């Protein structure tokens, strides 16, 4: 009788627990972004939050915690309760930072559950529409004539954009002066205002400005020319085949987050990325949609961390 009573109690407890788990999310979910409002990552997070709210009938709140190449936000999420209610919208710099700093407050891989990646955005070299630099060769020529005198902007030290710039300098045998800004929104304004003559940026942050004709892209990191910018040559075409700069964006959660929440979000993102309407929204902000499920996304991050750490032994990634 005692065994039966305990068994019945266990069944009752399981029955009570199941609805609670099935109700996730039953309160607002916070998506933390490591860049300021108006930045490309922030815009993506808000677009994603809108779509997730429609699916889950629950609020998804975007919280900006800029600073230290997203380390402030990343640390906060890594230390948050792993209950499915705090997420991180991460970008490619997440796997670069470990190559720049020996000591971090988190482990870029082990402190998180990979949910899914949703897309990539190629990096470019851009100038204003009235710039005397008509081609990438013009920039190289000027930089060789005036070493260290040509400024270029980036959205921050340690971003994929910054790494692309350093690799370009190394490959071209030039030295420019890095001017890091506090995110892509400030970087866009800096180029348009003439504060810097050259910028390296991702399609995610400059796609709309390029389409407006206010800036001129000189080169793009891609295997072949893109459909969006068919007249822009690739670095590879221009004689620089080994430059990296494919900036992914995806969702992470603190390590230990319930698998049910991770799987649910991953499946929701997969469904969204099969929707022509959502795909068009991503493309409109300069992103190339690309879904990678949890295991594949995690492996990609692991491989990138190893690649950038090895690269840092040959190229000064933290230069300038």
Average pLDDT confidence is: 89
Radius of gyration (CA) equals: 22 Å
H/E series, N to C?
HEHEHEHEHEHEHEHEEHHEH
Q: How many discrete structural domains? A: 2
The appropriate CATH architecture of the largest domain is 3-Layer(aba) Sandwich
The total strand number stands at 10
Q: Which homologous superfamily in CATH is the superfamily of the largest domain?
A: Bordetella uptake gene, domain 1
The share of residues in extended strands comes to: 15-25%
Output the CATH topology of the largest domain: D-Maltodextrin-Binding Protein, domain 2
Helices and strands: which structural class?
alpha/beta
Point out poorly predicted stretches.
Answer: 3-8, 10-21
Indicate the CATH class of the largest domain: Alpha Beta
Q: End-to-end span in angstroms?
A: 75 Å
The percent range for helix content is 40-55%
What order do the helices and strands come in, and which of them pair?
Blueprint: H1 2-22, E1 29-33, H2 40-56, E2 60-64, H3 71-78, E3 86-91, H4 97-100, E4 112-128, H5 136-145, E5 151-154, H6 160-172, E6 177-180, H7 184-192, E7 198-202, H8 203-212, E8 215-220, E9 246-254, H9 259-272, H10 276-284, E10 288-292, H11 294-312
Parallel strand pairs: 1-2, 1-3, 5-6, 5-7
Antiparallel strand pairs: 3-9, 4-7, 4-8, 4-9, 4-10
């Amino acid at each position: 009788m005692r065994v039966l009573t305990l068994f019945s109690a266990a069944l009752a407890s399981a029955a009570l627990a199941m609805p609670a788990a099935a109700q996730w999310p039953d309160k607002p979910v916070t998506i933390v972004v490591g860049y300021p409002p108006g930045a490309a990552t922030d815009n993506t997070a808000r677009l994603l939050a809108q779509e997730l709210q429609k699916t889950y009938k629950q609020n998804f709140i975007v919280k900006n915690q800029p600073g230290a190449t997203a380390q402030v936000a990343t640390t906060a999420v890594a230390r948050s309760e792993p209950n499915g209610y705090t997420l991180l919208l991460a970008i490619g710099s997440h796997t670069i930072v470990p190559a720049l700093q020996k000591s971090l407050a988190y482990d870029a891989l082990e402190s998180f559950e990979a949910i899914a990646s949703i897309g990539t955005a190629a990096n470019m070299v851009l100038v204003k529409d009235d710039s005397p630099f008509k081609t990438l060769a013009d920039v190289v020529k000027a930089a060789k004539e005036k070493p260290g005198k040509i400024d270029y902007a980036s959205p921050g030290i340690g971003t994929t954009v910054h790494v692309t710039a350093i690799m370009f300098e190394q490959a071209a045998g030039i030295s420019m002066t890095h001017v890091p800004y506090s995110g892509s929104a400030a970087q866009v304004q800096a180029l348009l205002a003439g504060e810097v003559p050259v910028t390296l940026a991702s399609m995610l942050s400059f796609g709309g400005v390029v389409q407006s004709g206010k800036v001129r892209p000189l080169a793009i990191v891609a295997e072949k020319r893109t459909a969006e910018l068919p007249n822009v040559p690739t670095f590879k075409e221009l004689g620089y085949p080994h430059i990296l700069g494919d900036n992914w964006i995806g969702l992470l959660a603190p390590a230990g987050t319930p698998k049910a929440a991770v799987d649910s979000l991953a499946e929701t993102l997969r469904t969204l990325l099969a929707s022509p309407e959502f795909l068009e929204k991503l493309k409109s902000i300069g992103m190339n949609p690309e879904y990678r499920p949890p295991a594949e996304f995690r492996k990609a991050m692991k491989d990138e961390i190893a690649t950038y750490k090895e690269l840092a032994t040959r190229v000064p990634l933290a230069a300038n």
